[in-house]
Amino acid sequence: MTVLVTGAAGYIGSHAVLALADAGHDVVAVDDLSAGTRDLIPAAVPFVQADIADEPTMGAILRDHRVRAVLHFAGSISVGESVRDPLRYYRNNVAGSAALLAACVDAGVRSLVFSSTAAVYGAPDVTPIPETAQLAPINPYGASKAMTERTLADVGAAHGLRWAALRYFNVAGADPQLRSGQAGGEVTHLIRRAVMAALGRASFAIHGDDYPTPDGTCVRDYVHVTDLVAAHLTVLDALAAGQSALTLNVGYGQGASVRDVVHAVERAAGHKLDAPIGRRRPGDPPTLVADSTRLRRDFGWTPRFEDLDTIVASALAWERKRGG
Ligand SMILES: NC(=O)c1ccc[n+]([C@@H]2O[C@H](COP(=O)([O-])OP(=O)(O)OC[C@H]3O[C@@H](n4cnc5c(N)ncnc54)[C@H](O)[C@@H]3O)[C@@H](O)[C@H]2O)c1
Ligand SMILES: O=c1ccn([C@@H]2O[C@H](COP(=O)(O)OP(=O)(O)O[C@H]3O[C@H](CO)[C@H](O)[C@H](O)[C@H]3O)[C@@H](O)[C@H]2O)c(=O)[nH]1
Asked: Taxonomically, which superkingdom (predicted)?
């Protein structure tokens, strides 16, 4: 079975390409390189620079490579940018995904796994958050993902495409063999930013310590990118076996505060981190922790890198390897 990976030159997509290739799948990689890094994709994997919104080109790729399944990671990913430039998000994430789906239906693709996000829940008052929680996104990024989930459900019902929407919580860490990690783009994610600060390559501040959480800083569910990608392979197998229309959280169900992350970075780096308290970042929910019971119980997902120190150590090792 050939699997097409969109957004393959990005952080998560490149890890998915590695995992698929490691598992013996034939892979074709697509990315428009708007935010991706070509050299994160192994040279042996066929790569096409293309925009997912280019339906004729995507159709040709799907047919030429006899693609049966798609892992769809391509998209615009910054919450802050989505508030400043919402049309970019509705165009790239919603309209782009619709064009890709049209090409998939036309080419007879059987299944597609979509990168959704905890941002579809907005600022929920329940923790951990089950998949049945209300969708109430508070920014255009989250709204664009919720709209694409709905598109998938409608397209699946009408055309028989099997689909899964995986709602990722906070993805972090790097390939244990350091073949990939976070590379391009603006450095806003906590673990990457704190690790870069520990290496003297970025400034760092804690965005507020007056939240209603145990230590006052925001709590998130950090999931190692390798475990996240393993969930995709698990779900691909389930879809191939006949499942359809799956919506699943991907997180560990354990929360870590910003301060917990700072301490983990200090342990990994072996020295203190300068971590002044800054202002709150607009739009940050206090706590986002996944209820991932369904993925574990019904699909046998067994994470291997749940320890925060392991996640942070791999992120630090990757940044060291990339150099300053
Ligand atoms: N990183 C996280 O914590 C996180 C959390 C929840 C969901 N997600 C989702 O996971 C997916 C991957 O995120 P990431 O962190 O790897 O981001 P990333 O920016 O590293 O990767 C996205 C890739 O998509 C490519 N791309 C963007 N628009 C495209 C288009 N129109 N056509 C072709 N390629 C295009 C970019 O060049 C980039 O390589 C995204 O859909 C994101 O919304 C990420
Ligand atoms: O330098 C920094 C960077 C981040 N933070 C804090 O660390 C926490 C985590 O922030 P991230 O930017 O790492 O992650 P988010 O929780 O904001 O966002 C993540 O989860 C979202 C779901 O709500 C989306 O899916 C998004 O794509 C994904 O990156 C937040 O409280 C943030 O304010 C800091 O204190 N200092």
From this structure: Bacteria
The ipTM, to two decimals, is 0.97
154, containing H or E segment = helix 140-159
Could you give the CA distance from residue 71 to residue 108 in angstroms, rounded to a whole number? Answer: 15
Collect contacts of 317-324 with beta carbons under 8 A, ≥24 apart. Answer: 317/174, 317/178, 318/174, 318/175, 318/178, 318/180, 318/181, 318/182, 319/181, 319/192, 319/195, 319/196, 319/199, 319/201, 320/199, 321/178, 321/181, 322/181, 322/183, 324/199, 324/200, 324/201
Chain segment 217-258, per-residue pLDDT in tens: 999 999 999 999 999 999 999 999 999 999 999 999 999 999
Q: Which of 77, 190, 219, 228 to mutate to test the pocket of ligand 2 (most atoms within 8 A of CB)?
A: 190
Is the previous residue joined to 128 through a cis bond, with omega within 30 degrees of 0?
Answer: yes
Indicate which atom in ligand 1 lies nearest the CA of residue 118. Answer: 6
- The model's pLDDT over 42-52, given as tens digits with 9 standing for 90+, comes to 999 999 999 99
Q: Which pTM does this prediction carry?
A: 0.98
Q: Report the distance separating Cα 237 and Cα 110, nearest Å.
A: 12
Ligand 2 atom 12, closest CA: 189
CA–CA dist 71, 237 (Å, integer):
12
